[in-house]
Predict the 3D structure of the following.
Amino acid sequence: MLQPHHRLCAAAFLLDFAVGITITVMPFFIYDLLDGTETMSGTIGAITSGAYALGCLASLRFLGGMKRPMPWAAAGAFMNCSLFALSFWCRQPVLFGAVLSVGTMGNSIAWPAMHSWMGGEPNPRRRARIMGEFNIAWSAGLALGPLAGGFLYDMHLGLPFLAVGMVGAACALLILTVPHEKAHHGEATAEQLDARADHDRLGESCLHAAWIANMSAWAMVGVARMVYAKRLKDLVETGALRLFGEEQAPVYLQHHEASIFAAMSFALSFASCAAFLAMGKTAFWHHRFRYLAGLQLVCAAGLWLLGDTHSLAVMVLVYAVLGLFGGAAFFSAVYYGMSNPAKKHGRTAINETLVGLGGLLGAQSFALLALHYPMELLLHHTPWVVAGLLAAQGVALRVGKRRFL
């Protein structure tokens, strides 16, 4: 029998496997069956991200006061997957977006509860290791889900929806087998708290800057997952997509846009998985912000490149860089949020709120601006936005160090 934290890792893999299918299929479902554009796709993506953020905010007090949070997490996971499965029969954009948004709010209960359970380990080194395993599990699901989603969608439009419903049921059953965190981890002793006091103060000083970086990362990921698919679809349909820079496009790149986009999404999530693996086994990044700043600058350059390139190889590389930054920012924010055990439930919910808020702002801003400006121009201006977010992170880091150190 798997250990409880391994069972929760398996549940996280399944849940984000389902989410990976969802985010890959959703734009093409909107384009093909709802006669939508990148504006509709971005708007629906933003609304679901906003619903997730609101759900996480609403759960701030709820999560901390729950005596048995895992049954609620199981119910939330099943709610998300089952409603996506039912959304296949929605042929009105408003209804489709509403069903997805309600389902997404189930995840706003599941994810904070699951992350908080992992953060209950009192030993910082062991906590980093099991949090790394957990993050690797869900990012692996998010990497493989798009491949399955794109393949199933190309076979039959309804298959991805059926698969998500089945995976959600299995995920919920696994979560129900996990005991209360204190029964598994125990509580921190006075000696442990004293030994890690300096480590925790450093974590507190970096927390708010890491939160802003995490929101920045998910804004970029929101653009990549919910809006850029339309540019890829246009390149495929016009025969302009190339693997590198060859004169004639390979036959496969002249069709199968869902599968091609799934490969790009896989690269993004696989890179996040690599970041989680490295961060779970090392400590060099602890309380050092230059790594997140450098990755953001590379991501800004990558988004600028996406505005011009017709090369699938370049697109995959940029998506991988976005995944590296997304993974590093997310792990940092969650890890620093566990510095104060009394506040870890609420901070986990806040961090997940910022994930949703970042996705909302990224997808919605591009969706609205795409009504008036070409996507190429919008992508060329993203470095200025990233520069502003980096400045905000610098201010937050300075304030944090002054307050806690």
Observations:
- Residues 124-155 form the longest helix (32 residues).
- Residues 219 and 358 are 4 Å apart (CA to CA).
- The chain is about 80% helix and 0% strand.
